Amino acid sequence: MLIVGVDSATWTVIKPNLSRLPNFSKLMEEGEYSSIYLKQKPWSPEVWCSMFTGLLPKEHGHHDFVVNDKIVKREDIKAEFIWDILDKNGVSVKALNVPFIVPPYNYNLDFKPVAQGVPVELDELLEEIEKVTASALEVLNNDKPDLFIVAYTALDKLSHLHWGEDILVDFYEKVDSALGKLIAYDDEVIVISDHGFCDYDNAPVRTLPERTPKGKVKGDHHPEAIIIKKNVQCYIEQPADVFKCIKKRFLGDMDG
Fold it and tell me: What is the DSSP letter of 76?
């Protein structure tokens, strides 16, 4: 099974530009797609953590990348993640660049993130897409784990400063190209985002001040996330359902 997380991916950009996004389009045609209307706050560390622990924020207790001026690390989060559970039950699993912490988390592989895990400049964002894809292809070519989770964060950074601009669609094209390379290795695929995006003035949650050292913020998080499934037979309505889906797929009804 392959799970591709695309931080901030939104139908608002994808659907009007499907002619430029052939791999998103192909997956949507071959599988099924829908929206996840978040019941929890569209806040990336909480949502990614819920997605892979099966717990709500009040249960996993992970709310931000930095708490009391300290960067939160994996060991600070007192919850079992799906990769922990699968690994101890003999299921081979790897995870790459999962952004519930900074720098994003890797499991069972080594990966040196771009810009210490916080790429901002356009060249850094492009490098992140390329570097994550190269590492992912190395895993898929050589290791072939039962479950591989990989995530891209560039669209989130770009959407904040370039919402509504064509350069954002250009970067969706780059993620689409990466997606096409990855899905060639697996017929059982989930593509998912942690939240959507919208114009800053209409955002129900403000994750950044209107002005930053990098310029005026044009977009921010929206609670409508995307999900595309191909050959995955489970219902995913909320982020925590991803954990339940994976667990049932590999372990059935047994306890972790």
Answer: G
Strand order of the β-sheet with 2-6 is 32-37, 224-230, 189-192, 2-6, 147-152, 93-98, 105-107
Domains, the chain, with CATH or none = 2-251 (3.40.720.10)
Contact status, residue 16 vs residue 202, Cβ threshold 8 Å = no
Classified as helix, coil or strand, 238 is coil
- Determine contact, residues 227/29, Cβ cutoff 8 Å: no
b vs e for 63-81, b when ≥16 Cβ sit within 10 Å of the residue's Cβ? Answer: eebeeeeeebeeeebeebb
Residue 237 φ then ψ, to 5°: -105, -30
32 near 228, Cβ under 8 Å?
A: yes
| Burial environment of residue 35 by CB neighbours within 10 A (0 to 12, 13 to 18, 19 or more) | middle
Each residue's pLDDT tens digit, 44-59: 999 999 999 999 999 9
Residue with tokens 């800053």: 200
pLDDT, tens digit, 9 for 90 and up, residues 195-226: 999 999 999 989 999 999 888 999 999 999 99
